[in-house]
């Protein structure tokens, strides 16, 4: 709640920013380690999902620790699913667009452009 008050952003917007930020940060950090972009992007999705699940655990730990996971009410479950969707949806969409479309790929090779001008 301190982050919401400090930034002035809605909780939903913060979930979206965290999801996209973690996804892009993972892609950037893993770039020198994993050369295959598809594998790197898939690992980034796993990290985003893990961060989102961890955040939901932290949000509900006041219920889970003393009483257990099965005691969560439907309201809590719906709120957690809403937060998970806000956090993970855009990274999954970016992954799908990159994997199954050519929207993020160069339209022509730079070497071809250089050869044409000479």
Describe this structure in words.
With 118 residues, this protein is an all-alpha fold. The chain has five helices and no strands. Helix 2 packs across helix 4 (74-100). The protein is elongated and about 65 Å long. The termini are far apart. The mean pLDDT is 88.
Write the layout of secondary structure elements.
Layout: H1 2-7, H2 11-30, H3 37-67, H4 74-100, H5 110-117
Helix pairs in contact: 2-3, 2-4, 3-4
Give the uncertain stretches in residue-range form: none
Order of helices and strands: HHHHH
Q: How does the overall form come out from the CA principal axes? A: elongated
Number of strands: 0
Percent strand equals under 5%
Overall SS class: mainly alpha
Mean pLDDT: 88
Q: Can you give me a brief rundown of this structure?
A:
With 118 residues, the chain is mainly alpha-helical.
Question: Could you name the key traits of this structure?
Answer:
elongated, mainly alpha, 118 residues
């Amino acid at each position: 709640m301190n982050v919401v008050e400090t930034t002035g952003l809605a909780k939903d917007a913060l979930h979206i920013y965290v999801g996209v930020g973690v996804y892009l940060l993972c892609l950037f950090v893993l770039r020198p380690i994993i050369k295959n972009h598809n594998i790197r992007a898939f690992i980034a999705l796993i990290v985003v999902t893990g961060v989102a699940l961890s955040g939901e655990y932290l949000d509900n730990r006041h219920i889970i620790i003393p009483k257990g996971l099965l005691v969560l009410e439907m309201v809590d479950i719906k709120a957690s699913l809403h937060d998970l969707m806000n956090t993970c949806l855009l990274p999954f969409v970016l992954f799908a667009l990159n994997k199954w479309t050519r929207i993020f790929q160069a339209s022509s090779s730079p070497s071809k452009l250089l050869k044409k001008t000479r």
